[in-house]
User: Which sequence fits this backbone?
């Protein structure tokens, strides 16, 4: 085996063995009124519709069809939150947590996020779990962290499910139990979480809680890579370069390495350059073409 091939094999073996605990704490809107224009949303919001108010807050928060305006986003989130709308309560809490459109205030953040969590809003439940885990504005409390993350996972939140899987797989805050780790990774992965799909790939690669199976590892990594998850793309580049779990294919390997390399990912650039030393100019050109044509596709697309 050439020295370059050995380095490629080493890279595929060393990729983030501990996996990822996702922290998806961004703000959300509901699917309600996704078909309405900003003018139509504004009309409904001004008449007191809390779902329209929350969505209008999201529109200004993200700058979707309007100039991004955190203060206006905060205003509409607050109007909906004060009517008891759980999504808006969570969104308002995150504005306070991050100091966007308002002075940063951990007490107000926790107040609003907890209101949403106690109504059964799974995202808010997950965020409170993270706040307790990290001591983010509140005293660290491993018991409360696990309680809220587990509640969110059982409510179907894929980020919480993946996070709980990470905790069990690595013995973080709970006794290590790789079977429970795999159970939660799989549950999140089957919902389309690219982070959990990547973690499932690692479990099959290493034989942790499942039989070691390189082909099954590639299957899960491909799902994550197709959604744009950079580390899964690097993994595919490495295994296509070495023939681990797939037939060796330098063009396919180069394609997968080029995609994250274009985003200035250091390890992807290392992999791309190493592969390039094994390829003809024609193969490199084909790999570059395939990379340019790649379009990530979410398994759970946003209404936006």
Assistant:
């Amino acid at each position: 085996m050439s020295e370059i091939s050995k380095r490629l094999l080493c890279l595929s073996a060393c990729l983030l063995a501990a996996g990822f605990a996702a922290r998806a704490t961004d703000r959300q809107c509901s699917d309600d009124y996704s078909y309405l224009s900003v003018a139509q949303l504004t009309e409904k919001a001004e008449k007191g519709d809390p779902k329209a108010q929350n969505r209008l807050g999201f529109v200004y928060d993200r700058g979707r069809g309007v100039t991004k305006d955190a203060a206006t986003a905060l205003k509409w989130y607050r109007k909906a939150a004060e009517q008891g709308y759980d999504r808006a309560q969570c969104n308002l809490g995150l504005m306070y947590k991050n100091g966007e459109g308002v002075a940063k205030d951990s007490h107000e953040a926790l107040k609003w996020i907890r209101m949403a969590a106690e109504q059964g809003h799974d995202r808010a439940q997950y965020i409170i779990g993270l706040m307790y885990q990290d001591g983010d504005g509140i005293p660290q409390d491993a018991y409360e962290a696990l309680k809220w993350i587990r509640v969110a996972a059982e409510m179907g939140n894929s980020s919480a499910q993946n996070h709980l899987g990470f905790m069990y797989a690595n013995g973080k805050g709970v006794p290590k139990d790789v079977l429970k780790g795999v159970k939660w990774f799989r549950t999140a992965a089957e919902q389309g979480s690219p982070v959990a799909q990547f973690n499932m790939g690692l479990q099959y690669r290493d034989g942790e809680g499942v039989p070691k199976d390189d082909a099954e590892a590639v299957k899960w990594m491909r799902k994550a890579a197709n959604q744009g998850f950079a580390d899964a793309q690097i993994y595919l580049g490495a295994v296509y370069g070495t023939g681990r779990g797939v037939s060796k294919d330098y063009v396919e390997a180069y394609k997968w390495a080029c995609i994250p390399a274009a985003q200035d990912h250091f390890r992807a650039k290392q992999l791309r350059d190493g592969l390039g030393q094994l390829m003809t100019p024609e193969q490199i050109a084909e790999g570059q073409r395939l990379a340019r044509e790649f379009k990530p596709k979410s398994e759970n697309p946003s209404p936006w």
